Amino acid sequence: MEHVVRSQTSRVRQQKRGDLVAEDIKRLVTQHELRPGDKLPMEKELQKLFGVSKSTIREALKSLEVQGLITISTGPTGGATIIEVPLERTLLFLQNYLFFQDVTMKDIYAARRLLEPELAAGAVPYLTEKHFRALEENIENCQPTSRDETRLVYQRQADLDFHDILASANPDPFLRFLCQMTNEMLRRLVVFSTHTPPEEHAEFGCANAKCHTDILEAARQGDVERVRHLMRAHMDEASGFVERLNGQLDGRLILDSEMMSPPFKLPPGRS
């Protein structure tokens, strides 16, 4: 037991003071139940509260900013403000994790087969006319009318917006997060073989458009079970197309400059 205590104490001592203060600020946020939009105390107050230097406070705040927990503004009314961690910032950390994992497209679609049918079925009772219009617009915009390969690949990325619109109506926040995170990962990280004929991408687009149209029709009718069945079939078909097009995850580590850049903006039509 004494050895374990010494080991834990050693690890604490090895942490940078700024990291320790960042942890203390997180505890402060939790204890005071601060929410997005709430401001942290000013730097001088934080210095006094934690008994550390200005440079240590700034180091701690910078760490929290990189994590996407706060935004920092300057000026007389500036300071640190709590923000909701953006989905895109979370993806950056996930991308670094996946770089060292042997994740395949087969693995991803195995998960999508389980998650997407339940996501879509659970969304049906909560879909509004606004959702239906957005779904219709997405189907129309993703119709493969061009044979330009770049445009066709972009449309396959935009096909994922259909799933995100459904996700926005599902009341289960964790299921919604899992599906939106997977969609964003596919949108940003998947690359296709440069030797694939454009006709193959167009065929994929036509199949997606038909599946999405059938799902939309069943959702308008309020047929939860049919939506679940159609989405499962859609995932099976999409998995086959991705395999034929030799879709791969383009893994790379995220640069520090990307971590510090403003959050990515979501594509139009997503909630």
From TrEMBL:
<dbReference type="Pfam" id="PF07729">
    <property type="entry name" value="FCD"/>
</dbReference>
<dbReference type="InterPro" id="IPR008920">
    <property type="entry name" value="TF_FadR/GntR_C"/>
</dbReference>
<keyword id="KW-0238">DNA-binding</keyword>
<dbReference type="GO" id="GO:0003677">
    <property type="term" value="F:DNA binding"/>
</dbReference>
<feature type="domain" description="HTH gntR-type">
    <location>
        <begin position="15"/>
        <end position="85"/>
    </location>
</feature>
<dbReference type="GO" id="GO:0003700">
    <property type="term" value="F:DNA-binding transcription factor activity"/>
</dbReference>
<keyword id="KW-0805">Transcription regulation</keyword>
<protein>
    <submittedName>
        <fullName>DNA-binding transcriptional regulator, FadR family</fullName>
    </submittedName>
</protein>
<dbReference type="InterPro" id="IPR036388">
    <property type="entry name" value="WH-like_DNA-bd_sf"/>
</dbReference>
<keyword id="KW-0804">Transcription</keyword>
<dbReference type="InterPro" id="IPR036390">
    <property type="entry name" value="WH_DNA-bd_sf"/>
</dbReference>
<dbReference type="InterPro" id="IPR011711">
    <property type="entry name" value="GntR_C"/>
</dbReference>
<dbReference type="InterPro" id="IPR000524">
    <property type="entry name" value="Tscrpt_reg_HTH_GntR"/>
</dbReference>
<dbReference type="Pfam" id="PF00392">
    <property type="entry name" value="GntR"/>
</dbReference>
